[in-house]
Structures are given as structure tokens and as C-alpha cells.
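**Backbone description:**
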Amino acid sequence: MSIKFIHTSDIHLDKKFDIKNFSLKESEKRRQEIWDTFDEIIKTAKKEEIRYLFIAGDLTEIEYINFNTLIKVAQKFKAIPDTRVVIACGKSDPYNINSLYEYIEWPQNVYVVKNTDYVEKLNFPDDNLCVHAMSWDNGIGNNKAQAIYDISVDDSKINVLLLYCDINSESDKLPVNVDLIKNKFDYCALGSRHNFEKIQRHIVYSGTPEPLDFKEGNEHGIIIGALGKKYVEYTFLNLAKRKFITRNIDLEISYSFNKILDLIKFSGDTFSNIKDYVRINLNGKVNTDVSMEEIENEAKQFFYYIEFEENYSYMNSEDKVYDHNDFNIIESYKLQFENNQDKLEQQAFKLGLEVLRKEKVVK
């Protein structure tokens, strides 16, 4: 008989967002959405009669979460008494003498892995299951991979590895050699990478249920499945309420104000524009007659959230003829920077050009 499980990690309850254009209100809203998705995980565990909920590190942002909020987490786990919740601690919620996890009265169905120097074995005889897990003890790094390689398993049991680590020998996030663990375990529930990633069929990163920044542009959710001895089947269940989407737009010097605005407005589908976080990478050349600041401000009304990476350069249109009235201070200013490719000077030019345009309007 197979055992139903959920594998999740990197939930980061009470995370503080440092995205450059996030307001305090948006940051608070996003924190609440992470809590809402955490609630969805609990509801799914109850509805699907999940036997084990594996959390592979970074359940919370321990630096910011408080005692009362952590009690709320414990109460949510208490609402699924038939689900065994096994928690390994990671870089953002390390387990040590100062950890609030130490002072919480966890429900009987919750198992927090306290060992940080060697692998703890959690045996569940009624399911013939053994969970092998180790927690972090600090938020800096972890080089205790040898403790993972030294694990001895009982081949008569279903063996699960629950670990916040990196399948990358160059990493400081507990680097693990996949060849040294792949034959020991029936399933490896890993955490630390924020995008879903299947290393091998039975060695998987669940990714964070809600994306946290623009580096995490894939689908986000949880892994739900069933496992047995030498057997695992699972699916990826998308739970994320929003996505972080990055789009690239290549500009040409011939593009007008309206042309560039339309390229931004129609760069994706309308649904994602009004729901998700969108970053536009603006590349190429822009005519100095076009105000990109005005375009960016105009574009904001068509998006739930939009920010811009300005990788373009301003250039004068070729063979422009000036008459007495056109050749004013703005045109003189443009000529000083004509064809300059230095990024810092281009940024200074953009700022100065917008200031001059405003001065002209005021006059």
C-alpha cells in the first residue's frame, strides 16, 4: 500500500520583501498571500487525506516571525491531526538555542528535526517508513555533507531523505553529491532552490509555493504524490496566486512614443498584466525626442505592478536639420552626449533630458 505525501519547502512565512518598487502596502499584501497559500497547503493535506507533510527548510523567516505568529503556525498543523508534519530547518529558519522553534509547544503530529551535526532518523513503524533528516544551525553556510554520506539505511523500509541542501559541489548551501545518495533513498525531498526542479525521478526540489522575486519566473506550488518501497509517483500542484514575469523589448531609434507604449502594453496577455508582477527589460536605441519617463508612467495604468530595467541608449535621429527655433538648449544638450555608449553617462543624460523637458513645459 502506498503512502500519500506532500513535499514543500521555502515557504518563508513573514518574509520582508526588498523589491525596489514594492510599497509597504504591497509588501504586506504579498506576505498575506504567502500565508493564504500556506492555508491552501493545510486544506489540501486534509482534503486529500495526506499521511505525511514534508517541509524541507525555510518554513519561516525566523529573523522576523514572532512567538505569537509561530503559535498560529502550530495551530494550523494541529488542524490536520492525521497528517504527520516533518520539518527540517534551513538557512532562514536555523535550529539552535535561540530558535523560537525550541519554545513552541508543537502538536503531537509535528516533528521538528533538532539535529544539526548528524542525520536524525525518524521511524514510523506503522508505515514501515524512516525519514532521514538534518537541520541547519546557522544562517550563513553548511559544510556537513559527510554526515549525509555516512547514513546507513534499512533496505527493508521505505527511506526518505528530507534536507535543505544544494546538489552542487561549489555551493555553500550544504553541497551534496547526488551520486552518493541516489541509491539509498526511495525519495529525496529537497529544499533551498526556489524553482521546482527534478534532479532525478526520486530526487526533487519542490520550490517555494509562492514566488518571491523576479528570479523565480516558473510555476510554483507543491509536490503531491504517493510512495512505497522502490516506488514514487507525484504531480506538481500549482498554488501560486501571482507570478513574477520578465519580458524583453528591443527598441529602435525610429520608434515613436505611441509605438513604444504599445509594445509595453501588449507585450503579454491582459490577464497576467492585471494580476502578476511584471518587469520589462528595455533594450536598444531610443530617439532623444521621446520621453521614456512619460512612457513608463503612462504604462503603469495598464498593469497591476510593473517595473523597468533601462538598458537602452538615447541617440539623435540621423541627418536631423535644425532651424533657428528648434536649436534650443535641449538640442544643444543632446549633441553633447551624441553616440555616447558609457552606461553611467547615459543614465546622467536620461536624467538631465527629463529635467530639461520639464523646465521647458513650465516655461
